[in-house]
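Researcher: Here's a chain I'd like modeled. Treat it as a single chain, no partners, no ligands.
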Amino acid sequence: MKKMIIAALAGALFAGSAFAADVTEMKKGVTFKHKAHAEALKDCKKCHETVEGGKIVGFGKEAAHKNACKDCHTEMKKGPTNCKGCHAK
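Model: Modeled as a single isolated chain. Structure tokens:
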């Protein structure tokens, strides 16, 4: 019985973390679809320091406009690279 409870709690924690950040509303009307990016990249370390994820160190306007986001979209030839592509609102 104790093992079943522990397994259920572990499953609930994992499910919660897997779906918690599906869509994130960022500054200036940018909507970030985490699930779509995770499925496309298949490697958390392309954005995060570890495979466990967490906040992206140093992420801000500079990272989005030059380093992480825009450069990756350009390299992969997928995703928006112009202002209105991300700033839809």
